[in-house]
Please model this.
Amino acid sequence: MGREAACEVRFAERTSRGKAHLESAELRFSGDFRLRIPFHEVREVAARDGRLQVSFSGGVATFVLGRQAEAWALGMRSPRSRLEKLGVKSGSRVSVLGIRDAAFLRELKERTSDVSEGRSRRDCDLIFVGMEKKGDLAKLARLRACIRKEGAIWVVRPKGPSGGLSEADVRARGPQAGLVDVKVVSFSPELSALKLVIPVSQR
Model:
């Protein structure tokens, strides 16, 4: 999902402007106060007149999102799974490198039996590679040779400015490895994933 918007939020007799994030399993807000609403605690979601109203175990929060309100409400009512957002299909040939996420590996193996951990293989549909610093990007050229023409490499990196590898760093390095970026997905509350593919003209 990974939606983000600057907005106003009203909660518990407080009002603040800040930034809201709609993730795959929770809605978060950072402003003069912070708010975290896990989907499993949500009781009701409604969108009206540009306002997203969320009733949950901690009370009722109103997000003034304008035209985005209905789309956010739909996303909360019917959230796509992480694997759906990442394009993992039944039978996909997948390699996972440097990602220590037991839940993700379990999800993968429930979706497809063709999963390799710790090493890249030829003819992959998808490669998920964890990266933390700019030097890690040198791997991209080698990994490009391991995906099918219509395949993809997902670079999974820590979120936030404190990380040693930014989204801009990955985007800038992609073309040097013969890859272009096409999509960004929230992989987890701590990690973001950027999708790189072979340009159509080179397939």
Summary: The chain has a mean pLDDT of 93.
